[in-house]
Amino acid sequence: MKEVVVLLRGVMPTGKNKIPKMSELVTVLEEAGFKDVRTYIQSGNVILKTDLYDEEIKNKIHKVILEKIGADLKIIIKTKNELEIAIKENKFKEDYDFSRIHLAFTNDEINSEKLKEVQDIVFEGEILNLGSNCFYMYLPRDSKKKKLNNNFLEKKLGITLTTRKLNVIQKLYGMMRW
Predict the structure, then answer these.
(1) Would residue 35 be called left, alpha or beta, if left means φ above 0 and alpha means ψ between -120 and 50 degrees?
(2) What is the fold, at CATH topology level, of the domain defined by 2-81?
């Protein structure tokens, strides 16, 4: 059995992708056979244990949430080791406002030509760095025109991403037992 973090993409406070309560999500996932299911904040962060492969986890969770709750969400799966690497590779150190550091995760392959095009864009105060298993975005409050975000990267790269603040990833990492 392995422990993974499940990052749900597209959870909204209202509308079609609403998850009414995280406790309901825990119940639905436990009824689907996942073990030791825990959540962190209302934005779709789940830790669970399973014997399934990542693709099976994604498909099963997507289907169960769609059928039982009605939300059509994308699923990103990460291990404790992947979160640890993401935390350690963060290039934004003490000179940056910690609360403005965001990590964007995907399970998709990234086309190197599209990536090069994105890396060549000037974001006017916003900064994009690529790590070995996530993107790092520094999004200052005083940025005149926010350009760098999850939707922009998904469109330009043709992939599914979900973004979390660094402190959320650190908390999830700390909650994992293995």
Answers:
(1) beta
(2) Alpha-Beta Plaits (3.30.70)
